[in-house]
Amino acid sequence: MKVLLVDDEDDIRKIAELSLRAVGKFETCVASGGREGIEVARAEAPDLILMDMMMPEIDGLGTLAELRQDPELAEIPVIFMTAKVQKSEVELYLSKGAIGVIKKPFDPMLLSEEVRRLFAEAQG
To answer: pLDDT tens across 38-58, in order?
Structure first.
């Protein structure tokens, strides 16, 4: 499975990418922001997007809205990775089309397992 990781923080991006590749054995591609994420999604056709919520220029919800408006990208499942996990915030993310939320800080040893679980639940 190919995962696109979108996060503006270099350290988080490096740790998550290493975790997804080494622990989860996922093929990964990365982007440092929402606009770049949309371009990488077009180029790489990932099976799943793992995306930060709080990013400069365009946040996670804005990026998700743009993905959903593009016929080529609209069906790609999105999981948000964020520290903003109040019940109302999580409900908002899910109502906008995310398939799940992973809380930051995340455990690098468990990240791939959580991604697989949320992906499988979304597939039914």
So the answer is: 999 999 999 999 999 999 999
**Which residues are paired to 52 by β-bridges?**
81
Q: What is the pTM of this model?
A: 0.96
Q: How far apart are CA 90 and CA 96, in angstroms?
A: 10
- Express the helix, strand and coil content of the chain in percent, nearest 5 each: 45, 20, 35
Length of the chain: 124
Four-residue CA torsion sign, 39, 24, 104, 102 = positive
pLDDT digits over 64-81, tens only? 999 999 999 999 999 999
Contact 38, 67 (CB under 8 A): yes
Q: Which residues, at least 6 apart from 117, have a Cβ–Cβ distance to it below 8 Å?
A: none
75, 49 contact by CB (below 8 A): no
